[in-house]
Structure formats: structure tokens, C-alpha cells
Amino acid sequence: MDMLFLVVLSFLSPAVLTLGQDLYSTPRKTVPLSKPNFIGMNHVAKANENPEGDDDEIYLFFSETAVEYDAYNKLDVSRVARVCKGDVGGQRTLQKKWTSFLKARLDCPVLQSRLPLLIQDVFLFCPGNWKTCVFYGVFTPQTCDLFFRDMPQYSAVCAYNIEDIKEVFSKSNFKALYTDASFGKWITYMGQVPELRPGAGQLYVGSDVAVVQMSVSTCGYYTSCMDCVLARDPYCGWDLSTNSCISINNIHPDTHSDIKQSLNSGNATRCPAVEATMALKTFFPGNTVRLMCQPGSNLAQMQWSVNNRTIKNSNKHQIHHNSLLILDTSDSDAGFYTCTSVESSNSGDYVIQKTTYELRLENFLEPSLVQPQAHEQQETLLTLKVIVIILTLILLALVVWNVYKGHFVIPRCPAKGKAKEDPQNVSVYQESLQIVNSNKAKS
Fold first, then answer.
1. Sema domain: which residues (predicted)?
2. What's the CA gap between 68 and 48, in Å, rounded?
3. Are 248 and 235 a contacting pair, CB within 8 Å?
4. β-strands 277-283, 348-361: how paired?
5. C-beta atoms surrounding 320 within 10 Å
6. Contact 106, 116 (CB under 8 A)
7. Taking a C-beta distance cutoff of 8 angstroms, is the pair 52, 198 a contact?
8. Do the beta carbons of residue 139 and residue 58 sit within 8 Å?
9. How many Å apart are CA 343 and CA 365, to the nearest integer?
């Protein structure tokens, strides 16, 4: 358990310290405290049922010498400061220093008061959740106020709503210390102040070769209220009106959505019961069967059972984070396999039945299995016939086109009675016959 202290270590180094495993303090240069007089400190539990997933906050009340005003005489003012309870400082440049420390002037306006009143005590009243919290401060005038020097001492009580303080810290213009060679001056930053909430919600992962941008909210991964709430994802919440896990950053302040989120305790008692899914899976003897079962979150432990008997890791069964492997299957492996998710939280253990598989041995003679195969064969045969017809038509078209262009010559027979013999050819033929006959006679 950490303890927070308001101390002054030396004349030049007042600080807000946390005493626990490590020591943290306010940075001297970035958030200076000038002669502070600490009055009180209050803890506001914002983490409980907070849709934005914020950390608890510590509010500090004190008075100090104002350094942001150019005045001949130093002016004392009242302050309110805020720091996150879980602030552990920076990893590099702000080690052992607060990174969430902010302070603002706290005014309690009273008529005829020339100087700001100084806070003397503070009281926190929260009738409901943290949004209803109100700070009541007791103020008295400064003793150097000449107007009230001869008047009886008095006090004033001013109330400050925590939402108004949050608005100032989130949207008001910040002041920065401009340091020159000879002097330093506090100036107001007039540029646009970035919104602290909801933020971009993007995660950047870099390496030597590339930079990857990804969203920090993957709410669509959670399909049930149990998974969404038990995951304790600070960016996600279960919307009971739409029955879906949505990003907290997408919720408009004016909407009346009933969002369920429990970051600290993981209380999912308001979630409706989850209906288990049924699936049929067949297998061949001797093969390895994988039954998938996706856990609702990384914190869940998966348990398997077959026919109401718990399955443990063995040479036959191997249980993985999101599946079950059944090795060298046989007829005896048929049955009902149930996947159960068990998740522990501060509010108790939640057992969720995710999926039930009916594992059957493959049967070739079963009509329901043979008919689809015959149907597939008919579709294949019909496809082949269509391809053959198309190729035939293409070939016929090519032949007709080549004949039309004269690339192919079709031989034709002469008509009967129309052919006449050439006398010259006949005489040549007769002469050749005579020569042949004469040769025969000589021989």
C-alpha cells in the first residue's frame, strides 16, 4: 500500500511525495511549488464503474506564492492540484517524477476583497458516485489586505464541483515558463489544447524496418457479455441495449446506453447466460482431429470433457489454448466433446460452456454422404460436356473462316457428258502407243 505525503524537503524543494516501493515527487522545473502551505488532500475513487477507465485521483489543496504574475510585491494565492494515484513516473526523461501533476488557481470571490482569499481547510462530500463529489473550502482574507486590517476577522466557504475542476484541467489554457538569458516569464499558451479524452486510441509498434499502427480497442473480438466484462478491457464495455461489446470512446455523453464494465473486480453477474453452440464433426479412423474453441479472453482457462468425463493431456489428447487435438482416432473416440471456459476474478469464478461437438465416424454408405458426391460428379460431367461443345463450335468457325478467305481449296469433280477430249492429247497418246508396240516387235 502506498502513502502520499505533502512535505517541504528544503527551502528550495517543496514536493508531493509518495512512499511505497519507490519514491516519486513533483518535478522542480516543470511544476514548481513556490513556498507552499499545504492544507489538505482527498482521494477520489474514479476507477469504480468509470466508463473511461480512469485511475483514482488525488486532489491537493494548498496556498503558495504566485510566480506567474509580474508584481512588485509577491502575491499569495490558493491552489488545487491533481495527480493520478497510479502515476509511476516516466520511463526515461521523467523517472521518479509525476507525469500527471496539474495545478490551478482556486478563487473564492468575496465582495470588497482586493487580495485573493487563502484556503484554510477543505472537506469532500460525495452523495453518490464520484461525479457528484463537491469540495467545500474554508477561506480567510490575507493579513496584508489594508482594507480589512481594521475590520473583524471573517471567513468564507466556497463549493467546487469536481466536474468543474475536471473541466479546468482538461480544457483551459496552460501557462508555460519562458526562460531568457536574464529572466523568466510565465506566458499563456494560446494554441489549441489537445483533448485528453477520449484520445486517438492508437498503438504504434516500431522496429528497424517498419512502424505498425493498430487500434488499442478490439471490442469486436468479444462476442458475449461475459467475455467482454471478464476481459476487463479498459477500452471496451458491454452495451445491454444492443447486446454488443462496444468501444468506450465511441459513447456519446448525451446517449442513455446501459454499459456494463467492471475493471477492478470483474463482476459479470448482470450479464445474461451464454448459450452454448452445437457442431457436428466427422472423422476417419487413424487421422488427427482438431476441435476449435476460442477463449473469451487471455485470462480464461479452457477445460474439455468427453461424455461428461474430464480430458487431460496425454498421448491421446493434447489441450491447447484454443483447441483440442485427438491423435490417431478410432471408433472409441466418437462421442460428445464439451469445451468450457473458466475465468477467475475478484468477484468469483465464472464457468461458461462455449461449444459442444458431436464427433462421428465417417460412413461411406450413408445416403446423406453418397448423394452429395453423386451430385458433384454430375456437375463435373455436365461441365465437361459444355466445354466439348464450345471447343467444337470454335473449331467449326475456324474452318469456315479459312475456306471463306481461300486458305483451303476444296477439290470438285467435272460433270458427266460435258468433258471433251483434246485431239492433240489423243494423238500424242496414240503415238506413244505405237512406239511401245514397235519396241515389242523388235524384241
1. 1-199
2. 37
3. yes
4. parallel
5. 12
6. no
7. yes
8. no
9. 44
* CA–CA dist 372, 62 (Å, integer): 82
Query: Phi/psi of residue 27, each to 5°?
Result: -65, 140
Q: Is the pLDDT of residue 12 over 50?
A: no
Taking a C-beta distance cutoff of 8 angstroms, is the pair 122, 137 a contact?
Answer: yes
Q: Name the nearest CA neighbour of 48 among 274, 342, 265, 273.
A: 265
pTM exceeding 0.85? no
CA 421 to chain centre: 101
| Kind of pairing between the strands at 134-140 and 156-161 | antiparallel
CATH topology of domain 202-260: ligand-binding face of the semaphorins, domain 2 (3.30.1680)
CA 432 to chain centre: 106
**Where does the chain hold its CATH 2.60.40.10 domain(s)?**
277-361
Q: Running DSSP on this structure, what letter comes out for residue 333?
A: G
Give 175's contacts (C-beta < 8 A, 6+ positions apart): 68, 186, 187, 188, 189
The verdict on domain 3-188 having CATH code 2.130.10.10 is yes
**90: phi then psi, degrees, rounded to nearest 5:** -85, 165
| 277-361 topology per CATH | Immunoglobulin-like (2.60.40)
Residue-wise pLDDT for 153-168, tens only, equals 788 999 999 999 988 8
In the chain, CATH 3.30.1680 covers: 202-260
Q: Where are the beta strands (DSSP E) in 249-370?
A: 259-260, 277-283, 289-292, 301-306, 309-310, 317-319, 323-326, 335-345, 348-361
Beta pairing partners, 42:
59
Distance from C-alpha of 216 to C-alpha of 222, rounded to nearest angstrom: 14
Cell of 10: 528544503
Supply the mean pLDDT for the chain: 77
The pLDDT, as a whole number, for residue 386 is: 92
Locate cell 480497442: which residue?
A: 217
Backbone angles phi, psi at 303, to 5 degrees: -125, 140
Residue range(s) of every CATH 2.130.10.10 domain in the chain: 3-188
Q: Could you tell me which of 151, 201, 192 has the C-alpha nearest to residue 173?
A: 192
Provide CB contacts within 8 A for 35, sequence distance 6+. Answer: 14, 64, 65
For residues 316-327, average pLDDT: 90
**Residue 368 to residue 80: CA distance in whole angstroms:** 76
